Structures are given as C-alpha cells and as structure tokens.
C-alpha cells in the first residue's frame, strides 16, 4: 500500500485525546478518593495508595503513548547518513493507532532518507567511474612521456617540452587524486597507520624531479618523526599542494619541509638577488591565501581534522603549518 494512501488512516490528534483521557480519569479517581478520605469513608493509607497507583498507571500509559516518538528520535540520533535503511522509516512499520502528526514526520523523514541514499549511491558510482576514466589517460600520457625521455637524439627543445608535459601530467594526477578524495564520503583507507616522514620522502623525490631546471632547492628537516592514523593519500595530497604553493611563491630560493612533534611545516626562503644580476631582487609573493592549491589543502585539512595555519614573516618567508592533535610514536613495525 502506498504510504501517501495509508497516511490518511492515521487519526489527527489521537495522541492528545488518549493523554487527555488518561489524565481526566486520573483526576476523577483522585478527586473521589480524596472526598471519601475527607469523610472518613476510606482510610488515609488507602487514599494515598490509590493516588500513587493511579499516578503510576498514568505515567506508564503516557510513556507507552510516547514510545513511537522516542523510537523515532533514537533512530534519527544514530543516523550518520550512510547506514540508515529508508525502509525502517516506512509507514507500514507504524501501528494504526499512531498519531497523524507522528506519521507525517515519519513520512517526511522516509522521503529525506530515500533521497540521501540515492545521492550516496550516485556519488559512489560517479567517483568509481570518474576514477577509472580520468586515471587511464593520465597513465597513458605518463608512459608515453617516459618513453620519449629515453629517446635518443631528442633535441633540447624537445627535452624541455617533455619535461613540461611530465610536470603538467604529475600536477593533473595530483589534482585528480585530490578531487576524487574530497568527493568520496568515506573510505576504508581513512583509518590506516602511516609514518609522516616516509610519505614526505616520497613526495619530495617526486617534487625534485619536477623542479629540474628551476633554481629552487627542496630540503627536508627531521628533528622528529611520528605516525598518524588516517589517510596516507590525503596527507600526501595535502603536502604536495603546500609544496607546490611554496614553489610558486618565489622565483629562486629554497623550500624547507620541517617535521616537529605533531607538526609539519612548509616554508619558502627566497635568495635576495638573482645570480649574475645583483641589482635585481628576487620577486617574493606574500602568502596567497586564496590560491587553488591552498583551497584544496584547506578542504583536506578540514575534512580530516588537521588544522592548517598560514603565516607570513617579515622578509622573504611564508610558512604553512599543519598540526596533528593525535600523533603516534613510530614503532618498529612501521619501519619495516
């Protein structure tokens, strides 16, 4: 039976009428026994006992009538948008004695839960299909570029073009990973354990390769090391966006990644002058707080609860700092 049709069978104000009957009968009984007690027709102990019993019955009856609302509140309270079955909110699950207002609320929540379930399914289908369709051509481009790199007799102009294609492909690959990561609602890899320093070593090796020919030096300082429980991919994409943003802040200098207890910072240090032209200072941008890289980094930090701080110091240094509230010690199993 369609829920819209069945909703008509629920009586409007049924809950209020039943509660009114309960308290009305309680009032009549209490009034009668009080009158009997005043005229000594009924002992005081019996009067008190009757009042207590009628009050308890009224309370139990009211609690029973409130049970559908309490069950609905409990169901919604434990709903995380992923595990709730919309059919558990179907009107067929309700008693015919349920008040029409409660039935209307259940009907609205059922429609809302159905739309959310449909959205989640479409989101999973899209990310699955987009992941395949976007990664496949990037893989082909990467393989072709690697083959061109090994080609003998490639001109200097061709080599520069290959490096530009390789750099753009890597940037597009990271961008796709970031967007797919943000598009996914949940992921089983969001609770894996990883060592922060190991991920940074991998990212720096990739970044140095793409900075070939540019007067920018990447440095990693490791006064500390720690592990995290979360998404290693998300941390990798976050650090890549911050490193790329730091490299864009200056024409020449160094980008330093520092690992402190529970903190990872990315800072860019610019040399004051370009070699061979002491009269021309290096152009250093202030911290761009509205850039695309920082926008993605901010969304990832918000998603995973890793606060991101941006700071511009007097001179030629911009710092992006990520703080982790629950760093873990590096264990022997993490190093294997």
From TrEMBL:
Gene Ontology CC: plasma membrane
GO terms of molecular function: phosphorelay sensor kinase activity
Superkingdom assignment: Bacteria
Pfam families xref list: HisKA
Residues spanning the membrane: 20-39, 45-62
Record key words, sorted: Kinase, Membrane, Phosphoprotein, Transferase, Transmembrane, Transmembrane helix
PANTHER family per UniProt: HISTIDINE KINASE, SENSOR HISTIDINE KINASE YKOH
PROSITE patterns: HIS_KIN
First-tier enzyme category under EC: transferase
E.C. number: 2.7.13.3
Protein name, as recorded: histidine kinase
Location of the Histidine kinase domain: 129-332
Organism encoding this protein: Rhodanobacter glycinis
Keyword Phosphoprotein annotated: yes
Catalytic activity: ATP + protein L-histidine = ADP + protein N-phospho-L-histidine
This protein's record includes keyword Kinase: yes
